[in-house]
Design goal:
heterodimer, A: 112 residues, mainly beta, seven-stranded mixed beta sheet, 50% strand, globular, B: 112 residues, six-stranded mixed beta sheet
Chain lengths: 112, 112
């Protein structure tokens, strides 16, 4: 059990550019979640996958955001036309048919 | 609408004493509660959880208490150790839902 991994750990981009983050969940975890955390706040839910199906999306996930989990294993989160307000820590978590979610180290995005 | 609230942004405790972190919630539909610990530049680490059918759950130095009538839960750490210095988040979910709703966090500092 190597834990949830996320890449890259840090990303600096210019406003208007597209960025993509990757999450590798704990092996055999069928559920995968994306959250966003800004300074001084707790993580906020973005979206949830069960296997390859995206079953829930937050209203925070604007049309510039898209997430995929093509084979029910790793997941990607893409942000198009980044804005300064997108600067945050993006967290991925996974679970296996339980209520406890295990988080990765996060990807810190800075939009200049 | 902040459904999960941690009203103390910070707490300072002497090493060896008890640390008590508090969390209040407004949604009576929540049926599962979790505490996470977060170090800088890392993702949240799961600590302990409790189902709404219980009022106490203990794991080593960590005990979580749930008072459903008051919509209040607390995390007790006894004895407190320097390595416990971190930001602590409480989180909640309701039955059938997958997303966690987090509080804003409490920064715990253990003084030697």
């Amino acid at each position: 059990d190597t834990g949830v991994s996320q890449n890259p750990r840090h990303k600096i981009t210019k406003r208007g550019q597209n960025v993509t983050f990757r999450c590798d969940p704990i092996s055999e975890h069928n559920r995968l979640y994306w959250y966003r955390q800004t300074l001084g706040q707790g993580p906020e839910f973005l979206t949830y996958f069960q296997n390859e199906a995206q079953l829930e999306k937050s209203r925070l996930l604007s049309d510039r955001f898209s997430a995929e989990r093509p084979k029910g294993s790793f997941s990607t989160l893409e942000i198009q036309r980044t804005e300064q307000g997108d600067s945050a820590m993006y967290l991925c978590a996974s679970s296996r048919d339980t209520d406890t979610q295990y988080f990765g180290p996060g990807t810190r995005l800075t939009v200049l | 609408d902040q459904q999960v609230k941690q009203n103390s942004p910070s707490l300072s405790v002497q090493e060896g004493r008890i640390s008590i972190l508090n969390c209040d919630y407004t949604n009576s539909m929540f049926d599962y509660f979790l505490w996470y610990k977060k170090y800088p530049a890392e993702g949240p680490t799961f600590l302990i959880s409790i189902s709404s059918i219980k009022d106490k759950n203990e794991d080593g130095r960590f005990t979580v208490f749930l008072n459903k009538s008051a919509k209040h839960l607390s995390l007790h750490i006894v004895p407190s150790q320097p390595g416990d210095s971190a930001v602590y988040f409480c989180a909640a979910k309701w039955e059938g839902a997958q997303k966690l709703v987090f509080g804003q966090g409490t920064r715990l500092t253990i003084n030697p």
